[in-house]
Amino acid sequence: AQSVTQPDIHITVSEGASLELRCNYSYGATPYLFWYVQSPGQGLQLLLKYFSGDTLVQGIKGFEAEFKRSQSSFNLRKPSVHWSDAAEYFCAGGSQGNLIFGKGTKLSVKP
Amino acid sequence: DGGITQSPKYLFRKEGQNVTLSCEQNLNHDAMYWYRQDPGQGLRLIYYSQIVNDFQKGDIAEGYSVSREKKESFPLTVTSAQKNPTAFYLCASAMNLDYEQYFGPGTRLTVT
Question: Which of these, A39, A92, B27, B61, is most buried using a 10 Å CB contact count?
Fold first, then answer.
């Protein structure tokens, strides 16, 4: 069955530290892959997307993600976290509109 | 100013009543979606529509109904048959099924 897994429910990092949020997918073919961010009580904002081509994709707010077919992963990274990055992050994958979302990783940032 | 609007932001209903959530977009997108979000569950697809007058059930369509009479509007009705309707509901749209989805701000529905 198709699935998207975010192994970490909650991560805490210090402001200025680097960040990596994990995402693993299970699909027969290469799916479209996305990362979204959600602040409490708000909708989701698209951070970046991967459809095909270059496996390292750049997004907004200084985020990037790398598609690794051999590891079935699409991890989100940021070199230096800001307090405003505290939010919940969702990985999603699919095709033809049938997006499957991971259960999210909540990011806390400590001063 | 292009975007997706959902109204109201908060909605309260008594058990046994149907309630309709509004979703409007002015992005000229063909595809629209409804998701339900519960704590710790991620997003689950209720219905989606790829074109006017056509829509498909998602993973958790039971107890919900939709219509797509206009390109820009995709209202969701939560019926009394939905056993656990209290949740955060998110509407999204996309250029078509093969493009990224953009989300509205959500409606929090509480049924008591």
Answer: A92
Structure token pair of residue A33: 């892959």
**H-type alpha helices, chain A:** none
H/E run at residue B22: strand B19-25
Determine the Cα–Cα distance for residues B70 and B51; give it in Å rounded to an integer: 9
Nearest chain A residue (CA) to B100 = A49
Hey, what amino acid is at B10?
A: Y
Paired with B49 in beta bridges are B32
- Tens of pLDDT, residues A96-106: 667 899 999 99
pLDDT at B42 over 80: yes
Contact B5, B104 (CB under 8 A): yes
Find the residue in A nearest to B41 (Cα): A103
Partners of residue B54 on adjacent β-strands: B51
